[in-house]
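R.M. (postdoc): so does anyone remember the format we settled on? I'll just put the structure tokens first.
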């Protein structure tokens, strides 16, 4: 049997703290070994950090894990999930259901830990929001938890500015993050750290586990910068701890964070991955089970019973639970008493906060949504979107967001009196200036949504590629973030193919749970915003044009409310069944309508279907979808200035598309439409061919 290396202080010293720390370590080892899958080394290294933070600092009531003013704990190193599960178990966190009601069960039981990484368990390989009580955000893709935490810290400041009153401090919580070398390498964490420092978010503390190990080996292979100096340059308060096992130093650093009121804090902790095991300090301790012999050797080195598995020594769980609860429960009860007095003094604000906690918007938020008269010249859907957003936002005070340095172009700036900008010294502003940081913007917006805010972002559609990870995670977490993307096609014109999205619609539509909506005129934009903000468990990608789109005459054509079903019959034959179905979205919808009118004048029985949201349309029952797309009508033509992928679902084997088969080009829009076939004459010509083919 392999002997564990000699490490000073390795053997149990008999103290309650060391016993609890080693319980966390051995639970992680045993769970990963039983699953034969996972990452044991980081939980073993960071057990003293998690122990100290949760036992002595985190304001958290295990009996009320959704208490609004609780401190947030984010495990950005999501692969170290067993660290979090072990702590949730030992802290006695109680499970709540989707409605926030207690189930009477532990959030993570010992049996749940034994079922680590198994189907339908509450202990998946990476922490998943909504699956496990106590998990504040889904993490795994490195850097995302860091970005989320900035959004959470922003939310605390925004909530405090909105609701706190003299003598009534409802919000003053902190956000703690455990992050690692991989997080520091990912660009999103740099973007997030930069804006956090700019905003002087002193309620934010990142604890960086510097263990110098990645999957391939030592970080020296690819990463040798001074991370502490980097964060000092950002403007963070940087503290150093030489040994992750030094709980006294950890306590001093965390106390220093609490005393800092002008900037975020970065605690750089040096640790040994797989501490105490024969694989300590090696990449072999990172992403695979230690092996039964190594587990036994490590337990022997700890002074732990070698053959005991999933052992929680008597008194460990009780003592840890009492320590966390002893601080968190009185704080929560004090907050609830304060909120009861607040409700008497400020009933309208209390009612607003109640709605936020329920994920609802205030009554009447739709009251001023405009309708747009028919207009052949029309308006760009981005301009219509800005008007609709500014009609809604005054009625929804916690609807907050901004753009990646593009709000004049995306029209996502809130312009009504008092909207203001969220900046140091004015955390009550509604407009966020994310800078040119699309990736962090998406992650931050998710963090805001995880803390009661209704967040939105704005950038050009082509830059959705920079945001794909947070968009995907918003869908996984079922967060109702609105991602606004403008400049949605070759309609960008002279900027050329680098800025003309082609494949982006298909890739967004491919994300499960994401409602991608491409409205076809100003009135569809109004309904699209209404739909997006009505979602409580789905994010929305709102796809808008740069160029003007004619506003359709809704007295002649069907109501834009049909968008609520994802797709609807916009125009139909005067009599009889259609022999052709024309399908359009976005700026191509008026083009399809014009072609329909021309074909109708020729005696062709044509139907126009507006299909702005495939996500919503697929949720309709079979009968409705059959009414819109009768199986008997085989001649179908979809027209969209984007790639063809996915359209076969609606046009079928006998139909066709006028779509982009290449990248675009730099030229005025009219020339591009002619070159790529987005003209009335070409739509009609292809339609006639399809009719002839299907007769």
């Amino acid at each position: 049997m392999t002997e564990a290396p000699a490490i000073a202080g390795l053997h149990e010293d008999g103290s309650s703290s060391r016993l609890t720390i080693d319980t966390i370590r051995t639970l992680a080892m045993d769970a990963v070994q039983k699953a034969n899958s996972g990452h044991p080394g980081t939980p073993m290294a960071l057990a003293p950090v998690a122990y100290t933070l949760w036992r002595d600092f985190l304001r958290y009531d295990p009996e009320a894990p959704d208490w609004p003013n609780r401190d947030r704990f984010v495990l950005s190193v999501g692969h170290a999930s067993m660290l979090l599960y072990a702590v949730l178990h030992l802290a006695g966190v109680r499970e709540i259901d989707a409605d926030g009601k207690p189930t009477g069960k532990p959030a993570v039981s010992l049996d749940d830990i034994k079922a680590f990484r198994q189907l339908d368990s509450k202990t998946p390989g990476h922490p998943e929001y909504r699956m496990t009580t106590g998990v504040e955000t889904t993490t795994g893709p490195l850097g995302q938890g860091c970005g989320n935490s900035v959004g959470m810290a922003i939310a605390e400041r925004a909530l405090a500015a909105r609701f706190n009153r003299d003598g009534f401090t409802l919000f003053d919580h902190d956000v703690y993050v455990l992050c690692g070398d991989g997080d520091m390498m990912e660009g999103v964490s740099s973007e997030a750290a930069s804006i956090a420092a700019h905003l002087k978010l002193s309620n934010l503390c990142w604890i960086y586990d510097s263990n110098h190990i990645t999957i391939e080996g030592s970080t020296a292979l690819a990463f040798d910068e001074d991370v502490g100096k980097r964060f000092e340059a950002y403007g963070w308060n940087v503290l150093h701890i030489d040994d992750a096992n030094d709980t006294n130093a950890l306590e001093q650093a965390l106390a220093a964070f609490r005393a800092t009121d002008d900037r975020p804090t970065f605690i750089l902790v040096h640790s040994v991955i797989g501490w105490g095991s024969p694989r300590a300090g090696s990449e072999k301790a990172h992403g695979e089970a230690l092996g039964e012999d190594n587990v036994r050797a490590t337990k022997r080195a700890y002074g732990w019973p070698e053959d005991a598995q999933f052992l929680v020594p008597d008194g460990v769980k009780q003592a840890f639970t009492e320590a966390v609860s002893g601080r968190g429960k009185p704080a929560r009860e004090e907050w609830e008493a304060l909120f009861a007095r607040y409700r008497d003094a400020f009933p309208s604000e209390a009612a607003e906060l109640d709605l936020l906690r329920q994920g609802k918007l205030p009554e009447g938020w739709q009251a001023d949504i405009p309708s747009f008269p028919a207009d052949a010249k029309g308006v760009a859907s981005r301009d219509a979107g800005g008007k609709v957003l500014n009609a809604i936002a005054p009625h929804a005070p916690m609807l907050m967001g901004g753009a990646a340095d593009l709000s004049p172009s995306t029209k996502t700036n809130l312009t009504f009196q008092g909207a203001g900008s969220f900046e140091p010294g004015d955390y009550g502003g509604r407009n966020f200036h994310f800078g040119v940081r699309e990736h962090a913007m998406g992650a931050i917006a998710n963090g805001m949504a995880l803390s009661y805010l209704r967040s939105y972002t704005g950038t050009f559609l082509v830059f959705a590629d920079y945001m794909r990870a947070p968009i995907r995670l918003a869908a996984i977490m079922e967060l109702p973030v609105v991602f606004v993307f403008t400049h949605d096609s070759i309609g960008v014109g002279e900027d050329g193919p680098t800025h003309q999205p082609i494949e982006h619609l298909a890739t967004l539509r491919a994300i499960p749970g994401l409602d991608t909506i491409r409205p076809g005129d100003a009135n569809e934009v109004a309904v699209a915003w209404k739909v997006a903000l009505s979602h409580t468990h789905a994010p929305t990608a709102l796809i808008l044009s740069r160029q003007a789109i004619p506003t359709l005459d809704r007295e002649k054509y069907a109501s834009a409310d049909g968008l609520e079903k994802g797709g609807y019959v916009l125009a139909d034959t005067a009599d009889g069944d259609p022999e052709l179905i024309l399908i359009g979205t976005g700026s191509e919808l008026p083009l399809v309508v014009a072609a329909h009118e021309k074909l109708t004048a020729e005696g062709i029985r044509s139907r126009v279907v507006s299909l702005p949201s495939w996500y919503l349309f697929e949720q309709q029952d079979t009968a409705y979808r059959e009414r819109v797309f009768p199986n008997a009508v085989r001649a179908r033509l979809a027209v969209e200035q984007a790639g063809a992928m996915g359209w076969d679902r609606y046009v079928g084997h006998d139909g066709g598309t006028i779509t982009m088969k290449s990248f675009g080009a730099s030229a005025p829009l009219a020339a591009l439409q002619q070159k790529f076939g987005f003209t009335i004459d070409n739509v009609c010509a292809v339609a006639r061919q399809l009719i002839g083919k299907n007769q």
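R.M.: ...and that's the designed sequence above, right after the tokens. Also worth knowing: The two ends are 79 Å apart (CA to CA). The chain has a mean pLDDT of 96.
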